[in-house]
Design brief:
This protein has 57 residues and is mainly alpha-helical. The chain contains 2 helices and no strands.
């Protein structure tokens, strides 16, 4: 996986975790759900990139 894409996915995952934690802290379920969705999207992209890497070797 290209380093830039890996870093981008990790940053998106971290942003999602922060958004989820903030949503929990202030009682905003919408923000919490958006954070979880961002994490899921980042995880899916990262899994796709890992699959591409596995096919190269």
């Amino acid at each position: 996986m290209a380093g830039g894409k890996k870093a981008k996915n990790m940053a998106k995952n971290a942003k999602g975790k922060a958004k989820e934690a903030t949503g929990k802290a202030v009682g905003n379920t919408s923000m919490e759900m958006k954070g979880k969705a961002e994490q899921a999207a980042a995880d899916a992209r990262q899994a796709g990139e890992k699959g591409k890497d596995a096919m190269k070797h």
